[in-house]
Each structure stands twice: as C-alpha cells, then as structure tokens.
C-alpha cells in the first residue's frame, strides 16, 4: 500500500515536471541543459520518496541538501531567464509574503513548548518572519501600481511609434472609386520550425509533429499577410488581420491577459513587426481609416490571423462557427469583437470543386469556401474583381509550392484532419485549374511569388498583364498536374546562429 501511495505522489510530480520542461523547451532552452535539469528533478523526486535508492546511507535530509537546493536554484534561474515578466513582481512578492507568514505561524506554534530560553528564541524568530511577511505583502501591494505604470509607458511608446510611422513619407491618397482593389499587407514575420512549415511529408504529422516541434529547432522566419479590400459596393473589408504591434513587441503583456498559461505556451520572440508593418499604420498610409473597415473575413482563429482584430472597432467578423465552438486559444485578440461575430451557414450551394459555399453578399462578389483541416472551421475566401478573382488561402496552403500537395506539405494535425487538409488542397487545385482568371493569395508565402503578387497588386488590382504574369509565375513553379518543376523543391539552409533560410532546388 505504501508503495502505491508513493507512486501516487510520484506520478503528478513527474507530470508537472514534464509540462515545465516542455514550456522551457518551447522557450528555446538548450536541450542538453534541459536533460541535466530533468535528471536533477527526477533524482530529487526519487530521492525524497525512496532515499535508499540513491545510496544506503542516504536520508531525506541529505537528498534535500544535495539535490533539493540545486534543483530549487536552477528552477529559479530558469524562471528568471525565460519566463519572468514585469507583471510577475506583485505575484512573486505575494508568494514570498505568504511563505514568510506561514513560516511565522509554524515557528510560533512550536514555540509554546521547551525551555524558557528556547521559547524566547522561537518567539523572536516568529516575530521576525511575521514582520518580513507583512513587509513583503505591503511591497506586493505597492508594486502593482508601479508595474501598471511601466506597462502603460511601454504601450504609450508603442502608440507614439505607430503615430510617427503613419506620418512618415510615402503615404498616398485612395484611388478613384469604381473597381475592386486588393492590397496585400505584410504584417510582420513569424518564426516557425522549418518542419512545421514544409515537413508534412517527412513525418511532421499529429503527435510526432508536435514532439518534433519541441526537439527540432531548425527555424525560419516567414511573412504574415493580411489583405485589405476596397469594394465599390460593399465598402472596406479585410481577409485576416495579421499580427499587431502589441502582440509582437509587448508579447508578455499581450498574452498575459490570457493568464499565465497563454504566456507560457507562446514564444516570446514568435513575431517580429516594426511600427510601419502594423495594420493601423498600413491602412492609414493607403489613405483609409481602420474605422471604415466594415467586414473581416477570418480564414481561421489562429492568432497570427486574428491579432489585428483589436484594431478594428467597427468591423463585423465573419468566421466559421466550428472554429469558434472549438475554442479560441487566445481570447484576448477576440475580446473586443465578441459581439460582432457572424457565422456563415454555407448554404449557397456548390461552387466548382466545393460542395458547399457561402455567397456572402448574395451577388457573387465574395464567396466563402470551407477548407477544414488546418483548423476545424478553416475557410478560403474568393473575391471577384473586374476580369479576375482572388482566392485568399489563409493557412489551407502556406505558399505556392504547397499547391503540389503530394510533394510539399505543411505539418498536419493527423488522422481525419490530415485527410480533410489534403482534400481541401485538391479542391483548391481543381478550382484554380478550371477558373484560370483566379490567382491564389497566401498568408505566409515566403517564395518569389510574394514579390510577383506585391508588384501585380501595387495599385490594388492586377491589370491583364499583371494577372498573366502571376499565372505564368505559377506555371514556372508547378506542372499542370500539380507537381513541382525542377529547382522548386524547398530545403532548409542553416545559418550560423539563430534563424535559418529556405532555398529551392
Ligand atoms: Zn497562419
């Protein structure tokens, strides 16, 4: 029975330690360091439960002194190195205060027995500990306003940077009304593992994929695109909203709103974004106001697509209900739009390769196409322009080469989700094959195609020559049966330090 009790204690301790190690790995702590630290924690747990396992003369007190102290110190060091953020100060002081007060209570209760001298000594210690506890508690309370002020300063400085970026030269006036215009907005970059982006056919699938994300730190930076659409009938719209300045530059503050777990599970340097890449700045520099944006089509809930939602005070957010019902991982991005969500019914009948669609305005100008797989409610958005259509891919396929889904594939969730993802890719292939006036616009394309898109859409809409150039570019990368042409297969090129590159061969 006793051994069962010990195992019952060991199991949760190991689970908590494993979760903590995963967090540290997510934060890029070197693997050898984590192995040593993990062994230390394991040794401590076993040593405390079965002291004799570590040597015949080993006792719990010795284990605590030999392994407990280094384990506690390294835990603290790792916490301060990769987790600590300024808003933790009041919590840390509060915890220290509680510990001191509890210590005072224990010493005080024990102090009633023994000789007069010993009792006096214990009382003194209890008073000292109690005093320290009260002082730490007071400091914790006082630090709240200091920490708040610090965060306000960071945000005010960001707001100032954004303001200056709007005023920078290069801003232009909006064009004449009349035709649909689409502006690709490069809202910063995100750092991802190469395999997560390109390794779907090399074992990056399901649980294996997630495990490899922890172990394999061959990382690349890929762009995050959102798209602004100026429509003569339906006003100003967006497909996705990209990343915001706060998300990238006040990461812990932004994700701290979702509680400690959000902060722990997101990487501090996941996003890179300069002030002039922020959605508000880019929209203003194109001659528009974010308040004019009336509709956002959100391809899916992930945070590199939803980060700009907090900047859009009036927009209705159209997204697939399945993504919302599945649960939003970082609700803070959605906090201000919760009352303005609209879920399509997908009851407008089939469209080309898609059995279901949603003709959003009822005039065929914007059609939503379900492409589940990357997320349960992922959708693509088809926007008709004059003489051409744009198919906004979201994360159905990350880049142009990903259209060769049998040769290049992003990490997939596994099981039925992988099957759905591949099915969505094939529907997209069929749509692009039959509608030759349609160009795919990606959310994370890091190939030369992104430059071709930027040039074709520099004035908001591609003319016949621009459209032809994009389709021709597609033909140089992909064969008519959706295979990669020679020289187009991606591979990882490590750099000396930090983030590597993608090359094609
Ligand atoms: Zn994405």
From TrEMBL:
It holds the Pfam family Lactamase_B. Residues 223-444 form the Metallo-beta-lactamase domain. Keywords: Hydrolase, Membrane, Metal-binding, Transmembrane, Transmembrane helix, Zinc. The keyword Hydrolase applies. InterPro entries: MBL_superfamily_lactonases (IPR051013), Metallo-B-lactamas (IPR001279), RibonucZ/Hydroxyglut_hydro (IPR036866). Its cofactor is Zn(2+). The chain crosses the membrane at residues 29-51, 63-85, 91-110, 126-144. The keyword ATP-binding does not apply. Belongs to the metallo-beta-lactamase superfamily. This is Metallo-beta-lactamase domain-containing protein. It comes from Nonomuraea recticatena.
